[in-house]
């Protein structure tokens, strides 16, 4: 899988960067969806709310557990993936694509430097295991 | 000894039966129907509706069966019929119980003229007694600008006269009654909006329970507006338009006002029985009012407004009226609310325990980690247990989830008997049951839950 424009947070969330735009898509990683199991509900953030990096921005319920989604960057929620309201299972099917959660307009783009690239994240997962 | 009981609801009929058992001659005066609010307009009718409607809701859910070959719809007349049947059966049973006990039931309205005498409105007769137990209950409270008109602005009493299911309903007050009717009307197919002055729905419950319920409301697309006041209410020809303090507008066919209860104490207007500022009868620990020989049990004393508390108060009032000296014990009172998910609690809420300065520890366990929840298909919710860390005793329990109203009693008993988390954890919980969730929550207090997924 090509995940060149993606950056990863240790709480298993990702940021997709497009060019120089301050607006980034965020979602959860394949590892996260796999460990959650079948996702049955997501409590999405509200548009226009401000969120801080490393804090809870959404909550996902699966058939086994419920878990907070930790924001990888700080900023304002400018878009949410409304498809997920009725079809949260999209996150299981396509966590890096159609299963995106929200678009955040970053407040401190330099926070991206604290995140891992895909290779580093893979290494991190191995360490964790 | 002659005892006169005024009111045939839960507090009244239990005090009548208790007084009779203790050998008194008992007269029970009821102006309307035996069973009171609970049986005629409250607990029993709402739960009958909810039970039928939840069955329908499950039928409609593809998860349980593929029902595309037949059509399911809600029929209000059928629901009302079933509700009436249940109420009548109970009422007949209650009538028999009282008759067998040898209680003289008079259908009339009483007014107290002195501590030993009532006058009956219809027959103008006077009845004298050695002791009087007032159990006249409560009624829906009105808001100043929201007079019940029986058509568009309704109380929980008048809802039972509805002939058609409204397309939309706004419910003012998200306490137990408001949240139960929100669920009922949602299941009937109405668009529901709930308005609450306090910052959360079920403001009297534990905060985590309110938060979980709000999420369930969102899942079900039941709108709620918390921490908001009503600025204006306009009645149109076929709808009501409410403007909230933040200028948002809500339009609906009808409005239910469920903002609390008013106490039926007008019968005491010509006596010196002391009333509180909400016109409730002030009683001591023995259920006696400020006047010797006059007792008050149930809603009318303004304490708990729960049928099961009324039962016990009625019993205690009757015993004390007949010369015993028993204190009313309110230490562990389970309460249950039947809404999108059942909500049940016993003992202290977390904020109460913190206010009391108790050194607490809490644990919650989700139903979705329990096999039985998947069997029934109802996986939302959790069991929350609060303990006093100094003694390991369980002091509070809060459940939101399937069958919460039934399974709470294990925890209520644990609190009542001052059981320790370690002791309850030792109890083997039968499998597969929802009660396993209690076993796991209690085990989790000491980090010993088995089915807990680390996140």
Report the count of strand segments of chain A: 9
The assembly state of the depicted protein chains is: heterodimer
Name the structural class of chain B.
Answer: alpha/beta
Percent of residues in beta strands of chain A: 25-35%
- Alpha-carbon Rg of chain B, integer: 23 Å
N to C succession of SSEs of chain A = EEEHEEEEEHHEH
Tell me how many strands of chain B there are. Answer: 23
Number of helices of chain B: 12
CATH class of the largest domain in chain B: Alpha Beta
If you consult CATH, what is the topology of the largest domain in chain B?
FAD/NAD(P)-binding domain
Tell me the helix content of chain A.
Answer: 10-25%
> Which two chains share the most extensive interface?
A-B, 12 and 11 residues
CATH architecture of chain A: Beta Barrel
CATH fold field value of chain A: OB fold (Dihydrolipoamide Acetyltransferase, E2P)
Strand order of the largest sheet of chain A: 1-2-3-9-8-5
CATH class bucket of chain A? Mainly Beta
Q: What characteristics describe this protein?
A:
heterodimer; A: alpha+beta; OB fold (Dihydrolipoamide Acetyltransferase, E2P); 9 strands; B: 455 residues; alpha/beta; FAD/NAD(P)-binding domain; 5-stranded parallel β-sheet; globular
Structural summary, described in words:
The complex is a heterodimer of chains A (129) and B (455). Chain A has 129 residues and is α+β, with helices and mostly antiparallel strands. Helix content of chain A is 20%, strand content 34%. Chain A has four helices and nine strands. In chain A, the strands form two sheets. A six-stranded antiparallel beta sheet of chain A has the order 1-2-3-9-8-5. In chain A, strands 4-6-7 form a three-stranded antiparallel beta sheet. The longest helix of chain A has 11 residues, at 118-128. The radius of gyration of chain A is 13 Å and the shape is globular. The N and C termini of chain B lie far apart (67 Å). In chain B, the strands form six sheets. Chain B has a five-stranded parallel beta sheet, with helices on one face. Chain B has helices at residues 10-21, 36-40, 43-60, 76-100, 176-188, 207-219, 307-321, 350-355, 371-376, 404-416, 421-426, 436-445, and strands at 2-6, 25-30, 104-107, 110-114, 117-120, 126-128, 131-134, 138-140, 153-154, 168-172, 191-195, 223-225, 230-235, 240-244, 249-252, 254-257, 261-263, 294-296, 335-338, 342-347, 360-366, 382-388, 393-401. Chain B is built from twelve helices and 23 strands. Chain A binds chain B through residues 35, 40-41, 43, 61-68, and chain B through 215, 218-219, 366, 368-369, 374, 379-380, 453, 455.
